[in-house]
C-alpha cells in the first residue's frame, strides 16, 4: 500500500462521525470485552439498510448494541431488528443503548442463546437483511441459516472477513483464518448469491440472494 493509498484509506475510515449515543455503546462494550464494528462498518450497515428499506433484519452478535443502532437508524420506522447473542451482560447493555437512543421496544427482539439454535427456529424467507458478527469459527453455520432466512433480493453481510489482514496472506493457515478464507471463496462462487468483499473496517463481505 502506498503512503497516498494508506492516507486515503484512513480518510475514508474517519469520514463518518459516530453519533454520541453509539460512542457510549462502544465504550460500554470496551468495558465488557465486546468488540464493536468500526464506525465505517456501522455507516455501511446503515446505508445498506436504507437502500433496501429493510424492515426485517436479523443480527448474529448483539454486542452492546453498536451495530444494532447503526442498522436501526437506516431501517424504516416500522422495521424490526432481531438480534442474537449468547452473552446476557452484553445484551443488557444493548437494551440500555436502544432505550437511550429512544428506540421503541417493539422495534427490537433481543434473544439470548446459541445462535445456531435460535436461527433454526426462525422463518424461511422472512428477512430482508442478515448481519453476522459472531464467533468466527461458527460463521459457516450462521451463513447457511442466514441464506435460508433471507428472501430473494435479501442482503447478507459478514464482518471481519479480512480478519486482521490474515485472510489475504496465504502463509497464514490457522483454523479460523482458513475457515474465513474458504467461506469467502464459497460465497463468491455460490450460484445463489451475488457477492463482493470490501476493504472496510476489518473486511465486509456483502452478498445479495438471487
How would you explain this protein's 3D organization?
- This protein is of the alpha/beta class.
- The chain has a single domain (3-209), classed as Rossmann fold (3-Layer(aba) Sandwich), CATH 3.40.50.
- It has helices at residues 3-13, 20-32, 39-51, 66-74, 88-100, 115-120, 139-149, 175-189; strands at 56-60, 80-85, 108-112, 127-132, 150-158, 193-198, 204-209.
- A 7-stranded mixed β-sheet has the order 3-2-1-4-5-7-6, sandwiched between helices.
Number of DSSP-assigned strands: 7
Distance between the termini: 34 Å
Second rung of CATH, namely the architecture: 3-Layer(aba) Sandwich
CATH-derived topology: Rossmann fold
- Estimate nothing, just give the exact number of structural domains: 1
| Percentage beta strand | 15-25%
Work out the helix count. Answer: 8
Task: Estimate the global geometry from the Cα principal axes.
Answer: globular
| Mean of all residue-level pLDDT scores | 96
Q: How much helix, percentage-wise, in residues? A: 40-55%
- Full CATH superfamily name: Vaccinia Virus protein VP39
Can you give me a brief rundown of this structure?
By secondary structure, the chain is of the alpha/beta class.
